[in-house]
Amino acid sequence: MQKILFVCTGNTCRSPMAAALFNRFAALEPPEFAFTAASAGLHASPGNPASEDAIMALMDYPGSNLSGHMASRVSCKDLEESFLVLTMEQSHKIQLLSACPDEHQKVFTLKEYVYGISGDILDPFMEGLPQYRRCAEEISRAVERLIEKLKKS
After folding, report:
1. Active-site entry in 13, 14, 53, 78
2. Residue 85 pairs with which residues in a beta bridge?
3. What is the pLDDT of residues 8-43, one digit of tens each?
4. Which of 52, 91, 128, 143 has the most CB atoms in a 10 Å sphere around its CB?
């Protein structure tokens, strides 16, 4: 299994939603689709649970579950062990490349890798459930495109 690592700031909202959605969609693919997803945060407090709003937003996507999620801080070892590293923001990518320059060939923002454009997945933290739902929808669309792209490679 090749690992896709999603990275955000605190690993309680965007990156765990992305990993959960990726794994939900990947489970529907044939067995030869050998990818799985994980998540981490640049400034995560290890052990923190997913935000309640992130958990609620993913209830719109049966099969995606964050109830047991525990935040973890990203390390260069995580990048080394990953096939692809997708960040939620350009600033995350810059920080990762500064800390782990040897992994530059596999680090992209999600929008850069999937759509070929610059742009961030905005942080819904403390913005309320409607914003979390919009964020989950944006991530879901990108993850579906990501899976299609991986199937073609």
Report:
1. 14
2. 5, 107
3. 999 999 999 999 999 999 999 999 999 999 999 999
4. 143
- Active-site entry in 8, 13, 100, 135: 8
Asked if pLDDT for residue 153 goes beyond 90, the answer is no
Express each pLDDT in 73-82 by its tens digit: 999 999 999 9
State yes or no: is 102 an active-site residue. no
pLDDT digits (tens, 9 = 90+) for 95-120: 999 999 999 999 999 999 999 999 99
> 80 to each of 12, 29, 44, 48, 72, how far by Cα in Å?
22, 25, 19, 24, 16
Q: Is 134 a catalytic residue?
A: no
For residue 123, indicate whether it is catalytic. Answer: yes
> In the chain, where are the structural domains located?
2-152
Q: Is residue 83 a contact partner of residue 2, using CB atoms and an 8 Å limit? A: yes
Sign of CA dihedral 85, 87, 91, 92: negative
**Residue 12 identity (one-letter amino acid):** T
Catalytic pick among 73, 120, 123, 145: 123
Q: Which CATH superfamily is domain 2-152 in?
A: Response regulator (3.40.50.2300)
Q: Give CA–CA dist 38/22, Å, rounded.
A: 9
